[in-house]
Amino acid sequence: MDWLITLSYLSICVVIFRVFGIPFNRWTVPTAIVGGAVLVSSLILLINYTHPYSDSSKQYFVTTPIVPVVQGTVLSVDITANTRINKGDILFRIDPLPYQNKVAQLTAQIVTAKQQYLSALDLSKEELSKQTLSTQELNGRELQTANADKRVDIDSAKAAAIIDDLNTQLSEATYNLRNTIVRAHSDGYVTQISVFPGLHVASMPTNPAMLFIQDSSFQYASWYPQNKILQIKAGYDAELIFDALPGKVFAAEVAKVSNIAEGAVKSNRSSVDLISSHVGEISVVFEIKDPNFEQYRDLLPLGAYGQSAVYSEELEELTIIRKVLLRMSSWASYVFPIH
């Protein structure tokens, strides 16, 4: 953005020399050059420090792998990649026949077990009532009845345990049957589809069926040098522009300033990551407040690049210059984008 200030000064000098007829000699030209160098350098230093600017802004998001709970053959894929979907929309369907058969089988087993238990209980009571007892056995009647009651209680407990186990299996089978229809758990986009009708899928986290992007995961962040961090605080006003939307400037607010510089040791690496172009820089997350942004949100490509400027509370008189420069940079995107 420094080149915009330099070009603006040169344009002003040309206009002044032409309009006022100032001659080009050994006094006027060096004066314009030296004066311009001092003026432009001072403006660049003051503006860059008090109202930081970054050309490394980007839309970030989190991709979530969609892994089916059950395995089976895909019957249909009901969505299109990179098309906005709502919570509850069907993503794809798995053949439910094996799971329907399992539910039907367990339901029949539960009915049979309950019937067998009731029949055995009625038969036991009937046989006990038909028994003919002699005079000598009358004294043991109470003991026999007590033993029979105990056997009935034991059989009841065993039957109840079997039925409970079958109910548990039925609950699991019903859960699996319900998950043969895979739905979106939130609003967002499916950015990659790896399944198609006829393909056999399994519940393998390392091989997801789709990649899903939640609407709530979108963030707009910029990378700033560490020497600018004193002039960037949460709550400060800011503005964002995007290469994909030339001439559009969106009001924003600093939502979060990271206190961890890029290039820290990753958990899966043994050394510092020096490949990133933002090594040593601080990330600043913005919240776009401009109500006009909603009509352009869906026009932005995922991961869109842009630029940002933060307006601190120091030297607020220079804010207007930074805003003009940011808009000039946005207009320049019509011809040659920064990224």
Describe the structure.
With 339 residues, this protein is an alpha+beta fold. The protein is built from six helices and 14 strands. The model is unreliable at 132-136 and 269-275 (pLDDT under 50). The chain is elongated and about 120 Å long. Helix 1 (2-19) runs antiparallel to helix 2 (28-50) and helix 3 (97-130) packs antiparallel against helix 4 (141-178). It has helices spanning 2-19, 28-50, 97-130, 141-178, 294-297, 319-332, and strands at 53-60, 63-66, 72-77, 84-85, 90-94, 181-183, 188-193, 200-201, 210-214, 219-224, 237-242, 250-257, 282-288, 305-311. It has three domains: 1-50; 51-61 and 218-339, Elongation Factor Tu (Ef-tu), domain 3; 64-214, RNA polymerase II/Efflux pump adaptor protein, barrel-sandwich hybrid domain (OB fold (Dihydrolipoamide Acetyltransferase, E2P), Beta Barrel), CATH 2.40.50. 39% of the residues lie in helices and 22% in strands.
Sheet with the most strands?
6 strands, antiparallel, barrel
Radius of gyration, taken over Cα atoms and rounded to an integer in Å: 37 Å
Measure the end-to-end span.
13 Å
CATH architecture classification of the largest domain: Beta Barrel
- The 3D shape can be described as elongated
Task: List the total number of helices.
Answer: 6
Q: State the CATH topology of the largest domain.
A: OB fold (Dihydrolipoamide Acetyltransferase, E2P)
Which CATH top level class of the largest domain fits?
Mainly Beta
Q: Tell me the strand order in the biggest sheet.
A: 1-10-13-12-11-14
Structural class: alpha+beta
The strand count comes to: 14
**Which segments are poorly predicted (pLDDT under 50) over 5 or more consecutive residues?**
132-136, 269-275
> Roughly what percent helix?
25-40%
SSE arrangement, N to C: HHEEEEEHHEEEEEEEEHEH
In percent terms, what proportion of residues is strand?
A: 15-25%
Count of structural domains: 3
* CATH level-four homologous superfamily name of the largest domain: RNA polymerase II/Efflux pump adaptor protein, barrel-sandwich hybrid domain
